[in-house]
Design a protein that fits this description.
The complex is a heterodimer. Chain A contains 15 helices and no strands. Helix content of chain A is 73%, strand content 0%. Chain A has a domain at 35-251. The two termini of chain B are 30 Å apart. Chain B has helices spanning 2-5, 51-59, 81-86, 104-115, 130-142, 158-170, 188-199, 214-220, 238-243, 245-261; strands spanning 13-22, 25-35, 40-44, 66-71, 74-75, 89-91, 176-180, 206-210, 223-228, 231-236. Chain B has a six-stranded mixed β-sheet with strand order 6-7-8-3-9-10, with helices on both faces. Classes of the chains: A mainly alpha, B alpha/beta.
């Protein structure tokens, strides 16, 4: 079989990182809502924001094996930062986005010192704790955040001074999609870098990483900070496009939802999370239209079915199918 | 050989009066051990003698309650495990401890990147690191893993996984290599090949290996250290150890008879 034709190592590694047709098709398909479903552009922008949030969780969970039940803390930090900047009179979206990402990244960096020291169950408890802590803080600091009533008075200026945020969501989706694509390119570069390889090493065997001299804590702090920045960017885009921020952006529900989307789509593949976000958000939109109160019944069922039947998520199942098809032909 | 005469010279790795207890259980009691540069020493002893614990203590996976660990003459007792690796102290594990989903080449390239401190770089593609990849490939070829370098570690044959353990350790360019039962679970004919690969390592590397198979010990070790109940019972050449009545009483008796007859 392959053992007789061993590719030259660098060429082999290079081939691993090449853009595939499926990827190009995926990104072209993201443009379809503009033409095919222009009535759903606001939903599409929500999907893109969710996808960006899932992407950030995939970087820590799928690649470094850091389980989090409080990832909304960084999403919410970004959302409130962007919202507050706008409320205080600076509604320019791009600078707001960058500032919000930096603020979330700073919070991520500070908390990463605790995160790097734990794994597994303690880590779930700690991330859960961070999430609850931040939400209650935001709730009690109502003079700043608006508390339970949410942050009012956000006004986002047109993107690049030209594209106004409107009711139809053209600008909202274009903005969210552009941010998602640019950040995705960065994430894709990251996972194909030496650092990406080190993260996979940590996920596979953290103990052995120490035995090859790897500064695992420092690696974890770096990726956790990067992921917090991306989550913050997603939160900022939500605040800017909806021009409102409620406490829900920091909620446990949001942390749980993003985890469900990632597991649904498949961890450690970048595209898995994106696919999970699309399926989850569209399904929620459809199901909750039918009978809103039972929406989580179906999500529960879907989650169990996926984990039992497709342990590597939807994308894992898909790649298994294509692999089998290739093996047969 | 010259290295045998240089006992007075600085040792590559040394333990000085190392103590360690887990509760009331003494796992290392006043252990003194010295490994000269280029050594090929074996560490033997019955199960539970504290051999693996001693490796954990020397590599920094465990902290001693008392005593010092010296690496190339420097006191490294307070240093973290990964820092000791960077100073040239590498180890392998008795039970395979690999990166199951990484290919052999990826695993060793990762170890080389960590040694060269480029594993923090996230904005450059991996295949741009030509030297690192080539070095990893050379290590794999030298350990007869060149043909399977693109297979994930979990899919390798068991003996190949044992070799990959050593390849990972070598990627850190160690001055001292501690091998915890490198041939554990490997069939006898393959284990000879494996030890031949170890014997063929550069003489710049001091090697200490734990091994239960006395035939391999006597063939590949220039010196044997016997550990019992957390202490060093004695050390000497294979011939001295083989004829020592104390050693035969506590450990060798049966094994050596088997060795003579088999």
């Amino acid at each position: 079989m392959a053992s007789t034709t061993i590719a030259e190592p660098r060429a082999y590694l290079q081939a691993q990182m090449r853009w595939r047709w499926g990827e190009i098709a995926f990104w072209l398909a993201t443009l379809l809502p503009f033409i095919v479903t222009p009535d759903y552009l606001l939903l599409a922008s929500q999907v893109a924001i969710a996808a960006l949030f899932v992407l950030s969780l995939d970087l820590i969970l799928g690649f470094a094996g850091i389980v989090s039940l409080g990832h909304a803390a960084y999403f919410g930090t970004g959302a409130y930062t962007a919202g507050l900047i706008s409320k205080w009179g600076w509604g320019e979206p791009l600078t707001g986005l960058v500032t919000a990402a930096l603020a979330a990244g700073l919070f991520g960096y500070v908390t990463s010192f605790i995160i790097a020291r734990f794994r597994h169950l303690p880590l779930i408890m700690i991330t859960l704790g961070i999430g609850l802590l931040l939400q209650e803080s935001a709730n009690s600091a109502s003079w700043l955040t608006g508390g339970f009533d949410g942050l009012q008075g956000i006004h986002t200026w047109p993107i690049l001074g030209r594209f106004r945020f409107d009711l139809y969501g053209y600008s909202a989706y274009g903005y969210a999609l552009a941010a998602l694509f640019v950040i995705f390119l960065g994430a894709r570069r990251l996972i194909h870098s030496p650092f990406g390889l080190a993260l996979r090493g940590i996920r596979d065997n953290g103990q052995r990483m120490r035995a090859i001299g790897a500064p695992t804590h420092s690696h974890i702090r770096t990726i956790y900070t990067i992921a917090a920045m991306i989550a913050g960017a997603a939160g900022a885009i939500l605040a800017q496009t909806t021009e409102t921020v409620s406490l829900e952006v920091l909620g446990f529900q949001r942390s749980a939802d993003v985890l469900v989307m990632l597991i649904l789509g498949g961890t450690g593949r970048l595209y898995g999370g994106l696919l999970g976000a699309v399926v989850y958000m569209v399904a929620r939109d459809q199901f909750s239209g039918l009978n809103p109160q039972y929406w989580y019944f179906w999500i529960g069922l879907l989650l169990i079915a996926v984990v039992v039947v497709l342990p590597n998520g939807l994308l894992g199942g898909l790649s298994l199918l294509t692999w089998r098809a290739k093996a047969q032909s | 050989m010259a290295r045998e005469g240089s006992i007075v010279s600085e040792s590559a790795l040394a333990a000085r009066g190392v103590d360690k207890r887990f509760g009331s259980l003494v796992v290392a009691a006043n252990v003194d051990l010295s490994l000269p540069p280029g050594a090929r020493h074996a560490l033997i002893g019955p199960n539970g003698a504290g051999k693996t614990t001693l490796i954990n203590l020397m590599t920094g996976m465990l902290r001693p309650d008392a005593g010092q660990i010296l690496l190339g003459g420097d006191d490294v007792t307070a240093l973290a495990a990964e820092e000791r690796v960077r100073r040239g102290l590498a180890r392998t594990y008795q039970i395979n401890s690999l990166f199951p989903h990484l290919t052999a080449l990826e695993s060793v390239t990762l170890a080389v990147c960590e040694r060269r401190r480029v594993a923090q770089t996230w904005w450059r593609r991996l295949f741009a690191y030509r030297e690192e990849i080539e070095e990893a490939q050379q290590i794999l070829v030298a350990l007869m893993l060149g043909a399977v370098c693109h297979r994930p570690a979990r899919e390798l044959a068991y003996g190949q996984q044992r070799l990959l353990e050593i390849a990972l350790a070598l990627a850190s360019r160690p001055k001292v290599l501690l091998l915890d039962e490198p041939a554990a679970g490997v069939p006898r004919d393959e284990s000879k090949e494996l030890f031949a690969a170890i014997a063929g390592l550069s003489r710049d590397i001091a090697v200490l290996f734990i091994e239960h198979d006395m035939e391999l010990v006597f063939r590949f070790a220039s010196k044997v250290i016997v550990m019992v109940g957390g202490s060093i019972l004695l050390e000497g050449t294979p011939a001295e150890i083989a004829s020592d009545p104390q050693v035969r009483a506590v450990y060798l008796g049966k094994t050596q008879r088997e060795y003579r007859h088999g």
